[in-house]
Design goal:
This protein has about 475 residues and is of the alpha+beta class. It has three domains: about 150 residues, Galactose-binding domain-like (Jelly Rolls, Sandwich), CATH 2.60.120; about 180 residues, Rossmann fold, CATH 3.40.50; about 70 residues, Immunoglobulin-like (Sandwich). It has ten helices and 20 strands. Strands 1, 2, 3, 4, 5, 6, 7 and 8 form an eight-stranded antiparallel β-sheet that branches. It has a five-stranded parallel β-sheet with strand order 10-9-11-12-13, with helices on both faces. Helix 6 links the parallel strand 11 and strand 12. Helix 2 crosses helix 10, helix 3 crosses helix 10 and helix 6 packs parallel to helix 8. The longest helix is centred in the N-terminal third of the chain and has 18 residues. The radius of gyration is 23 Å and the shape is globular.
Length: about 475
């Protein structure tokens, strides 16, 4: 097992590549600022200032598990000025970005409790509300099933001062809400894709200064929007298989900051390097196909004293080659840094220590991408030959929610525009009924079924298709 190139050699490569690209590529990787306009603004819940702890903690730019609140109707008055907003939120439940329904992570059962994510909700705007409920409101976006604990949505905001999120069922673990002014095309938007290393280091651990705060302190005109996407136990194959959902829930940002490989290399094996490389190339291609710039970190070193194994050199070489071959900006070198600082690795020998290891991850990401904030002319980053295995870029997406109606024991489903699979599950996750709309034999995109064998009770209807992903609760009597 190799221990990686020296810190000084990699540092020279990182800065040489980043600065060299700044000269050779011109403004290809420039960032346009999107100021945070929600910091210091109190969260209103159902028409009143949220009094759980301090109403300002929900908009302070920090995550803290002590500040969660239960909401299905909440609003912020960010004031008039922005013509467009990018709204983000974080909820806390299982801690993973998504459940096993969306991202399969062998070895970990991510079963997010109902209410852990915002589901079936509207984002509305107002110019004359006084408390987040009264006044005149118009719908800016309508979202159906949403399987991610952290997301961002862009909305039109011309002439408005309030935005309000109204969900069909409460989000029981809302932790943070932020709004960014993207009127000038701001694209300082980041999705942190990763394993439990990212789940813990970039979300779970409460740190003094996170990535966005560190960038803002060094470059005061900028305040990055962070979407935290760590999923414990996930491998590169799990991400590749779930790219549909990554593209759906995190395909509207400028950067994917990727930490991946620890679970592929688990216990020091190197026989999955080729598969890891193929999967990472698919992730890169999919990012580029969506106009996203992927930035890949070198995976964290272990502490063999506790773990009994170390990351094989072959994985580090594969990441370095992917960066070179795809002309990517090098990400942080977690490997050599944590190898030199084993005290920042937890006693399991694999994960960053709480909180110092997490704080180091935020700082290393901020240091690695700092050169991007020195060139301010924005240009799209879409490779001329993004590859043949990238997911198709979604254009002009119009949200049309399926309609599910229950009358006694009859269930009807309509407003779907493609063949879909339907499953009804009880609240323990067991499937009690399965069906399909739009079979080639009849071509129908509506369906009515009698659920004579399903006991009375509360259930969840899941509707899945190539571009459809929707979930809602029903009661059968």
């Amino acid at each position: 097992m190799g221990c990686g190139m020296s810190m000084s050699k990699f540092t020279q490569m990182l800065w040489g590549a980043a600065l060299g690209c700044a000269v050779a590529c011109g403004s290809a990787f420039a960032i346009t600022a999107n100021p945070n306009v929600s910091i210091g603004k109190p969260l209103y819940v159902a028409g009143d200032v949220a009094n759980d702890l301090n109403p300002l903690v929900y908009t302070d730019g920090k995550l803290d598990s002590n500040q969660i609140t239960i909401v299905n109707d909440f609003a912020l008055n960010v004031g008039q000025g922005p013509s467009k907003l990018f709204i983000t939120w974080d909820t806390r439940g299982d801690e993973a970005w998504a459940s096993q329904d969306y991202v399969y992570a062998q070895g970990c059962l991510h079963n997010l409790a109902i209410g852990s994510t915002l589901q079936n909700f509207k984002i509305m705007t107002s110019a004359n509300s006084t408390n987040g409920v009264d006044g005149d409101w118009q719908i800016a976006a309508e979202i159906g099933e949403s399987g991610a604990a952290s997301r961002g949505i862009a909305i039109d905001f011309e002439g408005m001062s309030w935005f309000r999120i109204l969900a069909s069922t409460p989000a029981i673990y809302l932790e943070e809400v932020s709004a960014y002014d993207i009127s000038n095309g701001g694209d300082d938007t980041w999705f942190f894709m990763g394993t439990s290393i990212t789940q813990m280091g970039m979300k779970q651990y409460a740190v003094d200064s996170n990535f966005a705060q560190l960038i803002h302190a060094r470059f005061p005109s900028y305040y990055p929007a962070m979407i935290r996407g760590g999923v414990a136990c996930v491998t590169s194959q799990g991400v590749a298989d779930a790219l549909k959902y990554y593209a759906e829930y995190a395909g509207n940002v400028k950067y994917w900051a990727i930490e991946m490989g620890t679970n592929d290399a688990w216990v020091g094996n190197d026989y999955t390097v080729e598969q890891f490389t193929r999967n990472m190339q698919m992730i890169i291609d999919t990012a580029k196909a969506h106009g996203i710039t992927p930035i890949i970190a070198r995976m964290i070193a272990t502490n063999p004293v506790y773990s009994g194994w170390q990351v094989p050199q072959e994985f580090l070489d594969a990441i370095d080659k992917l960066v070179r071959d795809n002309n990517l900006i090098p990400g942080p070198d977690f490997y050599n840094y944590f190898l030199a600082h084993p005290e920042l690795i937890s006693e399991d020998g694999v994960h960053p220590a709480n909180p110092a290891g997490g704080a180091a991850m935020h700082r290393l990401w901020a240091e690695a991408v700092a050169p991007l904030y020195m060139n301010k002319k924005p240009e799209p980053v879409i490779g001329s030959n993004a590859g043949t295995i990238a997911l198709k870029k979604m254009r002009d997406v119009k949200i049309a929610l399926p309609k599910v109606a229950v009358d006694g024991r009859s269930i009807s489903i309509s407003r779907v525009n493609e063949p879909v699979n339907i499953s009804i599950v009880d609240l323990t996750g067991h499937i009690v009924w399965k069906g399909r709309i739009g079979n080639p034999a009849d071509g129908s995109l509506e369906s009515s079924n009698l659920l004579s064998e399903v006991p009375a009770g509360n259930y969840i209807v899941k509707i899945r298709g190539a571009t459809t992903s929707y979930k809602t609760r029903i009661s059968i009597r």
